[in-house]
Amino acid sequence: MTLDEVISEFERCWPWLEVSLAAGAFVHEGRVWPSHSKEDVWDRIVDGRSLFWPGQNCAFITEIHVSPTGLKTHLIWLTGGKRNGSLKEIVSMEAEIAEWGRQKGCHQQTGYGREGWLRAFKGYRK
């Protein structure tokens, strides 16, 4: 994809990702503190720290972390999708994304999310 296409896809998918960030946000004294802003997420994609995986009805943001011991982890840290009709695509894409991580030498696949995702994804545990 060209940079213009990536920008267009990011803009299209951002509302789904923003909802997920808000759902996982910390609330303190009435203020909502999401972990990242739109600009933060975009900056991570542009500088190569994060990978952006757009789908038709959903999107993922992942990263590869290498621990000092050499343990290589592919982390799904943000996923969002249309309210209706994205679960099947999310599950399908997760399998493709996990396989990509294995091909890159990752030892494990981890993710953040609500506990309900454990019912959708096979092989994950809390």
Structure write-up:
This protein has 126 residues and is α+β, with helices and mostly antiparallel strands. Helix content is 40%, strand content 26%. The strands form two sheets. The chain has a four-stranded mixed beta sheet, sandwiched between helices. A two-stranded antiparallel sheet has the order 1-2. β4 and β5 (72-81) form a beta hairpin. It is globular. The mean pLDDT is 90.
Using brief descriptors, characterize the structure shown.
126 residues; alpha+beta; two-stranded antiparallel sheet; 4 helices; 6 strands; globular
Tally of separate helices: 4
Low-confidence stretches: none
Instruction: Write down the secondary-structure element order.
Output: HEEHEEEHEH
Give me the secondary-structure category.
alpha+beta
Strand content: 25-35%
What do the pLDDT scores average to?
A: 90
How far apart the termini lie comes to 35 Å
Question: What best-fitting shape do the alpha-carbon axes yield?
Answer: globular
Largest sheet: 4 strands, mixed
- As a whole number of angstroms, the C-alpha radius of gyration is 15 Å
Total beta-strand segments: 6
Query: What spatial order of strands do you see in the largest sheet?
Result: 3-4-5-6
State the helicity in percent bands. Answer: 40-55%
